[in-house]
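Human: We require from you a protein record containing the residue sequence and its fold in C-alpha coordinate form, and nothing else.

Assistant:
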Amino acid sequence: MKPSEWLRGTLLTTTLALATTPALAADDGTVTNFLLDNGMEVVVIPDHRAPIVTHMVWYKIGSADEPPGKSGIAHFFEHLMFKATTNHAAGEFDRAVSAIGGSNNAFTSYDYTAFHETVAPSALGEMMSFEADRMRNLILTDDVINTERDVILEERRSRIDSNPQAVLEEEVDATLWQNQPYRIPVIGWMQEMEQLNRTDAKAFYDKYYTPNNAVLIVAGDVTPETVKALAEKTYGKVARGPDLPPRIRPIEPEQNTRRTVTLTDARVSVPAFTTQWVVPSYHTAKPGEAEALDLLAEILGGGNRSRLYQQLVVSQGIAAATGAYFQGAMLDATNFTVYGAPRGDARLADVEAAVHAEIARIASGGVTEDELEKAKDRYIRSMIFARDKQDDMANMYGATLATGGNVRDVQEWPDRIRKVTADEVKAVAAKYLKLDHSTTGYLLPQTQAGN
Protein backbone atom coordinates (compact mmCIF):
# COMPACT_ATOMS: atom_id res chain seq x y z
CA MET A 1 0.00 0.00 0.00
CA LYS A 2 1.04 3.63 -0.19
CA PRO A 3 3.73 4.58 2.34
CA SER A 4 2.25 6.47 5.25
CA GLU A 5 5.06 8.36 6.88
CA TRP A 6 8.12 10.24 5.86
CA LEU A 7 10.09 8.78 8.74
CA ARG A 8 13.20 10.35 10.17
CA GLY A 9 15.63 9.05 7.58
CA THR A 10 13.63 10.46 4.70
CA LEU A 11 12.95 13.70 6.50
CA LEU A 12 16.68 14.04 6.97
CA THR A 13 17.26 13.55 3.26
CA THR A 14 14.80 16.30 2.46
CA THR A 15 16.30 18.60 5.07
CA LEU A 16 19.78 17.98 3.68
CA ALA A 17 18.38 18.92 0.29
CA LEU A 18 16.41 21.93 1.42
CA ALA A 19 17.81 24.23 -1.18
CA THR A 20 19.72 24.71 -4.35
CA THR A 21 21.38 27.45 -6.31
CA PRO A 22 19.45 28.83 -9.28
CA ALA A 23 21.82 26.93 -11.57
CA LEU A 24 20.58 23.68 -10.07
CA ALA A 25 16.96 24.48 -10.59
CA ALA A 26 16.81 24.31 -14.35
CA ASP A 27 18.91 24.13 -17.50
CA ASP A 28 18.64 27.91 -17.89
CA GLY A 29 18.60 28.65 -14.16
CA THR A 30 14.93 29.59 -14.09
CA VAL A 31 12.29 28.36 -11.69
CA THR A 32 8.81 29.71 -12.39
CA ASN A 33 6.01 30.03 -9.88
CA PHE A 34 2.52 31.48 -10.21
CA LEU A 35 -0.98 31.28 -8.76
CA LEU A 36 -4.06 29.93 -10.49
CA ASP A 37 -7.23 31.98 -10.11
CA ASN A 38 -8.53 29.54 -7.49
CA GLY A 39 -5.46 30.08 -5.27
CA MET A 40 -3.43 26.98 -6.16
CA GLU A 41 0.29 27.74 -6.23
CA VAL A 42 2.32 26.24 -9.08
CA VAL A 43 6.11 25.81 -9.27
CA VAL A 44 7.81 24.69 -12.50
CA ILE A 45 11.39 23.37 -12.44
CA PRO A 46 12.48 22.72 -16.05
CA ASP A 47 15.12 20.07 -16.71
CA HIS A 48 15.38 18.90 -20.32
CA ARG A 49 18.13 16.28 -19.96
CA ALA A 50 15.69 13.36 -20.04
CA PRO A 51 12.13 13.00 -21.40
CA ILE A 52 10.47 12.48 -18.02
CA VAL A 53 8.51 14.67 -15.64
CA THR A 54 7.71 14.49 -11.92
CA HIS A 55 4.30 15.83 -10.94
CA MET A 56 3.52 16.45 -7.26
CA VAL A 57 0.56 17.88 -5.37
CA TRP A 58 1.35 18.96 -1.81
CA TYR A 59 -1.55 19.65 0.54
CA LYS A 60 -0.80 21.89 3.52
CA ILE A 61 -2.31 19.42 5.91
CA GLY A 62 -0.54 16.82 8.00
CA SER A 63 -0.96 14.86 11.17
CA ALA A 64 -0.14 17.89 13.36
CA ASP A 65 -3.27 19.62 12.01
CA GLU A 66 -5.67 16.84 13.01
CA PRO A 67 -8.58 17.55 15.37
CA PRO A 68 -8.08 16.28 18.94
CA GLY A 69 -9.04 12.64 19.26
CA LYS A 70 -8.80 12.01 15.51
CA SER A 71 -5.15 11.00 15.24
CA GLY A 72 -4.33 9.22 11.99
CA ILE A 73 -7.02 10.91 9.90
CA ALA A 74 -4.44 12.65 7.65
CA HIS A 75 -2.70 9.38 6.85
CA PHE A 76 -6.07 7.60 6.55
CA PHE A 77 -7.16 10.13 3.98
CA GLU A 78 -4.00 9.61 1.99
CA HIS A 79 -5.22 6.03 1.50
CA LEU A 80 -8.75 7.11 0.65
CA MET A 81 -7.49 9.35 -2.17
CA PHE A 82 -6.80 6.19 -4.19
CA LYS A 83 -10.45 5.14 -4.18
CA ALA A 84 -13.18 5.72 -6.75
CA THR A 85 -14.39 9.15 -7.82
CA THR A 86 -17.49 10.16 -9.71
CA ASN A 87 -15.41 10.01 -12.90
CA HIS A 88 -13.02 7.09 -12.33
CA ALA A 89 -13.33 3.63 -10.81
CA ALA A 90 -11.15 2.56 -7.90
CA GLY A 91 -7.69 1.61 -9.17
CA GLU A 92 -8.14 3.29 -12.54
CA PHE A 93 -5.57 5.98 -11.76
CA ASP A 94 -2.95 3.39 -10.76
CA ARG A 95 -3.65 1.31 -13.86
CA ALA A 96 -3.32 4.36 -16.11
CA VAL A 97 0.09 5.18 -14.63
CA SER A 98 1.29 1.58 -14.95
CA ALA A 99 0.05 1.34 -18.54
CA ILE A 100 2.43 4.11 -19.64
CA GLY A 101 5.39 2.78 -17.62
CA GLY A 102 5.21 5.48 -14.97
CA SER A 103 5.21 5.37 -11.19
CA ASN A 104 3.03 6.96 -8.53
CA ASN A 105 2.82 7.11 -4.77
CA ALA A 106 2.00 9.30 -1.78
CA PHE A 107 3.19 10.09 1.72
CA THR A 108 1.93 11.79 4.87
CA SER A 109 4.04 13.73 7.36
CA TYR A 110 3.41 16.03 10.29
CA ASP A 111 2.96 19.16 8.16
CA TYR A 112 1.84 17.99 4.73
CA THR A 113 0.45 15.22 2.56
CA ALA A 114 1.83 14.76 -0.96
CA PHE A 115 0.85 12.76 -4.04
CA HIS A 116 3.24 12.23 -6.94
CA GLU A 117 3.69 10.65 -10.34
CA THR A 118 6.71 10.27 -12.62
CA VAL A 119 5.74 9.85 -16.28
CA ALA A 120 6.59 10.86 -19.82
CA PRO A 121 5.88 14.56 -20.56
CA SER A 122 3.08 13.58 -22.95
CA ALA A 123 1.15 12.13 -19.98
CA LEU A 124 1.39 15.22 -17.78
CA GLY A 125 -2.06 16.50 -18.74
CA GLU A 126 -3.61 13.12 -17.94
CA MET A 127 -1.94 13.09 -14.50
CA MET A 128 -3.23 16.57 -13.77
CA SER A 129 -6.71 15.51 -14.81
CA PHE A 130 -6.68 12.53 -12.44
CA GLU A 131 -5.31 14.57 -9.53
CA ALA A 132 -7.74 17.44 -10.08
CA ASP A 133 -10.61 14.95 -10.20
CA ARG A 134 -9.81 13.29 -6.89
CA MET A 135 -9.24 16.65 -5.23
CA ARG A 136 -13.01 17.07 -4.98
CA ASN A 137 -14.87 14.06 -6.45
CA LEU A 138 -14.12 11.10 -4.17
CA ILE A 139 -16.95 8.67 -3.40
CA LEU A 140 -16.74 7.94 0.32
CA THR A 141 -19.13 5.16 1.31
CA ASP A 142 -19.21 3.32 4.62
CA ASP A 143 -17.89 0.19 2.89
CA VAL A 144 -14.89 2.11 1.52
CA ILE A 145 -14.20 3.66 4.91
CA ASN A 146 -14.48 0.40 6.85
CA THR A 147 -12.28 -1.57 4.45
CA GLU A 148 -9.52 1.01 4.32
CA ARG A 149 -9.62 1.56 8.07
CA ASP A 150 -8.79 -2.12 8.49
CA VAL A 151 -5.82 -1.58 6.17
CA ILE A 152 -4.33 1.25 8.21
CA LEU A 153 -4.88 -0.64 11.46
CA GLU A 154 -2.91 -3.57 10.06
CA GLU A 155 -0.26 -1.15 8.81
CA ARG A 156 0.17 0.16 12.34
CA ARG A 157 0.49 -3.38 13.72
CA SER A 158 3.14 -4.33 11.17
CA ARG A 159 5.14 -1.09 11.02
CA ILE A 160 4.94 0.12 14.60
CA ASP A 161 3.63 -2.39 17.11
CA SER A 162 5.85 -5.22 15.86
CA ASN A 163 8.98 -3.06 15.68
CA PRO A 164 10.70 -2.23 19.01
CA GLN A 165 12.60 0.70 17.54
CA ALA A 166 9.41 2.24 16.14
CA VAL A 167 7.62 1.75 19.48
CA LEU A 168 10.45 3.50 21.29
CA GLU A 169 10.49 6.37 18.79
CA GLU A 170 6.80 6.98 19.43
CA GLU A 171 7.36 7.03 23.17
CA VAL A 172 10.34 9.37 22.85
CA ASP A 173 8.31 11.77 20.70
CA ALA A 174 5.48 11.73 23.21
CA THR A 175 7.99 12.60 25.92
CA LEU A 176 10.06 15.17 24.02
CA TRP A 177 7.03 17.22 22.99
CA GLN A 178 5.04 18.39 25.98
CA ASN A 179 2.48 20.51 24.13
CA GLN A 180 2.97 20.52 20.36
CA PRO A 181 1.07 17.97 18.25
CA TYR A 182 4.34 16.52 16.94
CA ARG A 183 4.07 14.31 20.02
CA ILE A 184 1.31 12.33 18.28
CA PRO A 185 2.44 9.70 15.72
CA VAL A 186 1.70 10.40 12.06
CA ILE A 187 -0.01 7.04 11.66
CA GLY A 188 -2.14 7.71 14.75
CA TRP A 189 -2.87 6.05 18.07
CA MET A 190 -4.55 2.67 17.66
CA GLN A 191 -7.54 3.40 19.90
CA GLU A 192 -8.33 6.58 17.94
CA MET A 193 -7.70 5.05 14.52
CA GLU A 194 -10.27 2.37 15.32
CA GLN A 195 -12.96 5.05 15.71
CA LEU A 196 -12.34 6.96 12.46
CA ASN A 197 -15.50 7.02 10.34
CA ARG A 198 -17.12 8.43 7.24
CA THR A 199 -18.19 11.64 8.98
CA ASP A 200 -14.59 12.31 10.07
CA ALA A 201 -13.26 11.59 6.58
CA LYS A 202 -15.82 13.76 4.79
CA ALA A 203 -15.23 16.72 7.12
CA PHE A 204 -11.46 16.41 6.68
CA TYR A 205 -11.78 16.20 2.88
CA ASP A 206 -14.12 19.15 2.56
CA LYS A 207 -11.96 21.37 4.75
CA TYR A 208 -8.46 20.68 3.50
CA TYR A 209 -8.50 19.16 0.01
CA THR A 210 -8.98 22.35 -1.93
CA PRO A 211 -6.82 24.08 -4.56
CA ASN A 212 -6.12 27.09 -2.33
CA ASN A 213 -4.60 24.72 0.25
CA ALA A 214 -2.34 22.96 -2.27
CA VAL A 215 0.95 23.46 -4.08
CA LEU A 216 1.64 21.91 -7.49
CA ILE A 217 5.28 21.11 -8.26
CA VAL A 218 6.26 20.03 -11.77
CA ALA A 219 9.91 19.15 -12.43
CA GLY A 220 11.37 17.80 -15.65
CA ASP A 221 11.13 18.06 -19.40
CA VAL A 222 8.49 20.76 -19.52
CA THR A 223 8.14 24.48 -20.12
CA PRO A 224 6.34 26.90 -17.80
CA GLU A 225 3.94 27.80 -20.60
CA THR A 226 2.89 24.19 -21.10
CA VAL A 227 2.45 23.57 -17.39
CA LYS A 228 0.39 26.72 -16.95
CA ALA A 229 -1.92 25.85 -19.84
CA LEU A 230 -2.46 22.30 -18.57
CA ALA A 231 -2.91 23.43 -14.97
CA GLU A 232 -5.53 26.00 -15.91
CA LYS A 233 -7.38 23.38 -17.96
CA THR A 234 -7.47 20.87 -15.09
CA TYR A 235 -6.81 22.26 -11.61
CA GLY A 236 -8.10 25.66 -12.67
CA LYS A 237 -11.60 24.19 -13.07
CA VAL A 238 -11.73 23.13 -9.40
CA ALA A 239 -13.62 25.61 -7.26
CA ARG A 240 -11.72 27.48 -4.61
CA GLY A 241 -12.44 26.31 -1.08
CA PRO A 242 -13.13 28.47 1.97
CA ASP A 243 -10.10 30.39 3.21
CA LEU A 244 -8.45 28.46 6.01
CA PRO A 245 -7.27 30.18 9.19
CA PRO A 246 -3.52 30.45 9.83
CA ARG A 247 -1.89 27.19 10.97
CA ILE A 248 -1.36 28.28 14.57
CA ARG A 249 -0.65 25.35 16.86
CA PRO A 250 0.06 25.01 20.59
CA ILE A 251 3.46 26.44 21.49
CA GLU A 252 6.02 24.24 23.20
CA PRO A 253 6.82 25.50 26.72
CA GLU A 254 10.35 26.03 27.95
CA GLN A 255 11.85 22.68 28.83
CA ASN A 256 13.77 22.46 32.09
CA THR A 257 14.22 18.77 32.78
CA ARG A 258 16.14 15.78 31.49
CA ARG A 259 13.84 12.87 30.65
CA THR A 260 14.58 9.28 29.70
CA VAL A 261 12.52 6.55 28.06
CA THR A 262 13.67 2.93 28.20
CA LEU A 263 12.39 -0.04 26.22
CA THR A 264 13.75 -3.55 26.75
CA ASP A 265 12.79 -6.22 24.26
CA ALA A 266 13.93 -9.76 23.54
CA ARG A 267 14.06 -8.94 19.81
CA VAL A 268 16.80 -6.34 20.34
CA SER A 269 20.34 -7.68 19.91
CA VAL A 270 22.41 -4.47 20.03
CA PRO A 271 21.58 -1.67 22.50
CA ALA A 272 21.26 1.88 21.21
CA PHE A 273 20.36 5.36 22.38
CA THR A 274 19.10 8.64 20.95
CA THR A 275 19.16 12.03 22.63
CA GLN A 276 16.91 14.79 21.33
CA TRP A 277 16.46 18.49 21.98
CA VAL A 278 13.69 20.88 20.94
CA VAL A 279 15.22 23.49 18.63
CA PRO A 280 13.85 26.03 16.13
CA SER A 281 13.16 25.02 12.52
CA TYR A 282 13.85 27.05 9.40
CA HIS A 283 10.34 28.47 9.72
CA THR A 284 10.65 29.52 13.38
CA ALA A 285 14.36 30.25 13.88
CA LYS A 286 16.00 33.64 14.24
CA PRO A 287 18.08 34.62 11.17
CA GLY A 288 21.06 32.31 10.78
CA GLU A 289 20.21 29.90 13.60
CA ALA A 290 18.71 27.12 11.49
CA GLU A 291 21.64 27.27 9.08
CA ALA A 292 24.04 27.07 12.02
CA LEU A 293 22.14 24.04 13.39
CA ASP A 294 22.38 22.36 10.00
CA LEU A 295 26.14 22.86 9.93
CA LEU A 296 26.47 21.78 13.56
CA ALA A 297 24.75 18.49 12.66
CA GLU A 298 27.08 18.04 9.68
CA ILE A 299 30.25 18.73 11.69
CA LEU A 300 29.16 16.74 14.71
CA GLY A 301 27.67 13.66 13.08
CA GLY A 302 26.90 14.12 9.39
CA GLY A 303 29.01 11.31 7.95
CA ASN A 304 32.34 9.52 8.08
CA ARG A 305 34.25 12.80 8.25
CA SER A 306 32.27 14.05 11.24
CA ARG A 307 33.65 14.37 14.76
CA LEU A 308 31.51 11.57 16.14
CA TYR A 309 32.51 9.09 13.46
CA GLN A 310 36.18 9.92 13.61
CA GLN A 311 36.33 9.81 17.40
CA LEU A 312 33.97 6.97 18.31
CA VAL A 313 34.28 4.67 15.29
CA VAL A 314 37.78 5.30 13.97
CA SER A 315 39.87 6.47 16.95
CA GLN A 316 38.26 4.84 19.99
CA GLY A 317 36.59 1.95 18.17
CA ILE A 318 33.69 1.84 20.63
CA ALA A 319 30.76 2.60 18.31
CA ALA A 320 29.17 0.55 15.56
CA ALA A 321 27.00 3.51 14.60
CA THR A 322 26.80 7.16 15.62
CA GLY A 323 25.67 10.43 14.14
CA ALA A 324 23.56 13.57 14.39
CA TYR A 325 20.81 15.21 12.40
CA PHE A 326 18.62 18.29 12.38
CA GLN A 327 15.09 18.16 10.93
CA GLY A 328 14.88 21.73 9.71
CA ALA A 329 11.94 21.44 7.30
CA MET A 330 9.13 21.70 9.84
CA LEU A 331 6.36 24.26 10.26
CA ASP A 332 6.91 24.63 14.00
CA ALA A 333 9.83 23.95 16.34
CA THR A 334 11.73 20.78 15.54
CA ASN A 335 14.31 18.43 17.05
CA PHE A 336 18.07 17.97 16.95
CA THR A 337 19.13 14.35 17.47
CA VAL A 338 22.31 12.44 18.28
CA TYR A 339 22.51 8.67 18.44
CA GLY A 340 24.88 5.80 19.01
CA ALA A 341 25.25 2.04 19.38
CA PRO A 342 28.28 0.17 20.82
CA ARG A 343 30.66 -2.15 19.02
CA GLY A 344 32.05 -5.39 20.39
CA ASP A 345 32.53 -5.34 24.14
CA ALA A 346 32.04 -1.58 24.46
CA ARG A 347 29.27 -0.40 26.77
CA LEU A 348 26.36 1.75 25.65
CA ALA A 349 27.09 4.11 28.54
CA ASP A 350 30.60 4.70 27.18
CA VAL A 351 29.28 5.53 23.71
CA GLU A 352 26.69 7.89 25.14
CA ALA A 353 29.26 9.64 27.31
CA ALA A 354 31.63 10.05 24.35
CA VAL A 355 28.87 11.52 22.16
CA HIS A 356 27.94 14.10 24.77
CA ALA A 357 31.61 14.90 25.37
CA GLU A 358 31.96 15.89 21.71
CA ILE A 359 28.90 18.13 22.01
CA ALA A 360 30.39 19.77 25.11
CA ARG A 361 33.67 20.40 23.27
CA ILE A 362 31.87 22.30 20.52
CA ALA A 363 29.69 24.21 22.99
CA SER A 364 32.77 25.35 24.94
CA GLY A 365 35.54 25.43 22.34
CA GLY A 366 33.66 25.84 19.09
CA VAL A 367 34.71 24.50 15.68
CA THR A 368 37.70 25.37 13.54
CA GLU A 369 37.43 27.49 10.42
CA ASP A 370 38.82 24.59 8.41
CA GLU A 371 36.22 22.06 9.50
CA LEU A 372 33.46 24.64 9.08
CA GLU A 373 34.48 25.40 5.49
CA LYS A 374 34.78 21.70 4.67
CA ALA A 375 31.35 21.09 6.18
CA LYS A 376 29.89 23.88 4.06
CA ASP A 377 31.48 22.39 0.95
CA ARG A 378 30.18 18.90 1.71
CA TYR A 379 26.74 20.20 2.51
CA ILE A 380 26.37 22.29 -0.61
CA ARG A 381 27.81 19.53 -2.82
CA SER A 382 25.03 17.27 -1.56
CA MET A 383 22.59 19.83 -2.96
CA ILE A 384 24.34 19.77 -6.30
CA PHE A 385 23.95 16.01 -6.54
CA ALA A 386 20.21 16.44 -5.96
CA ARG A 387 19.80 17.85 -9.48
CA ASP A 388 20.29 14.33 -10.86
CA LYS A 389 16.90 13.29 -9.45
CA GLN A 390 13.79 15.18 -10.39
CA ASP A 391 11.91 13.91 -7.36
CA ASP A 392 14.60 15.36 -5.08
CA MET A 393 14.20 18.73 -6.76
CA ALA A 394 10.42 18.56 -6.44
CA ASN A 395 10.71 17.52 -2.79
CA MET A 396 13.01 20.45 -1.99
CA TYR A 397 10.52 23.00 -3.20
CA GLY A 398 7.42 21.15 -2.04
CA ALA A 399 8.61 20.64 1.54
CA THR A 400 9.74 24.26 1.80
CA LEU A 401 6.54 25.77 0.41
CA ALA A 402 4.33 23.47 2.49
CA THR A 403 6.04 24.58 5.70
CA GLY A 404 5.79 28.34 5.32
CA GLY A 405 8.70 29.02 2.95
CA ASN A 406 8.85 30.26 -0.63
CA VAL A 407 10.89 29.81 -3.79
CA ARG A 408 13.40 32.48 -2.75
CA ASP A 409 14.09 30.63 0.48
CA VAL A 410 15.19 27.64 -1.57
CA GLN A 411 17.29 29.62 -4.00
CA GLU A 412 19.05 31.77 -1.40
CA TRP A 413 19.83 28.93 0.98
CA PRO A 414 23.44 28.29 -0.19
CA ASP A 415 24.34 31.95 0.34
CA ARG A 416 22.94 31.83 3.86
CA ILE A 417 24.92 28.66 4.60
CA ARG A 418 28.10 30.31 3.33
CA LYS A 419 27.59 33.22 5.74
CA VAL A 420 27.47 31.05 8.89
CA THR A 421 30.43 31.69 11.19
CA ALA A 422 32.22 29.39 13.60
CA ASP A 423 30.97 31.53 16.48
CA GLU A 424 27.37 30.99 15.36
CA VAL A 425 27.82 27.21 15.30
CA LYS A 426 29.32 27.33 18.79
CA ALA A 427 26.49 29.56 19.98
CA VAL A 428 23.65 27.23 18.89
CA ALA A 429 25.43 24.22 20.42
CA ALA A 430 25.75 26.03 23.74
CA LYS A 431 22.24 27.47 23.62
CA TYR A 432 20.23 24.42 22.59
CA LEU A 433 22.17 21.21 23.25
CA LYS A 434 22.02 21.22 27.04
CA LEU A 435 21.93 17.71 28.45
CA ASP A 436 19.70 18.70 31.37
CA HIS A 437 17.05 19.88 28.86
CA SER A 438 17.03 16.74 26.71
CA THR A 439 15.06 13.54 26.15
CA THR A 440 16.96 10.27 25.75
CA GLY A 441 15.59 6.97 24.55
CA TYR A 442 17.29 3.65 25.35
CA LEU A 443 16.63 0.51 23.32
CA LEU A 444 18.00 -2.47 25.26
CA PRO A 445 18.13 -6.25 24.88
CA GLN A 446 16.06 -8.14 27.40
CA THR A 447 19.19 -9.29 29.23
CA GLN A 448 20.03 -5.68 30.05
CA ALA A 449 16.75 -4.90 31.79
CA GLY A 450 17.41 -3.05 34.99
CA ASN A 451 21.01 -2.11 34.07
The chain has 17 helices and eleven strands.
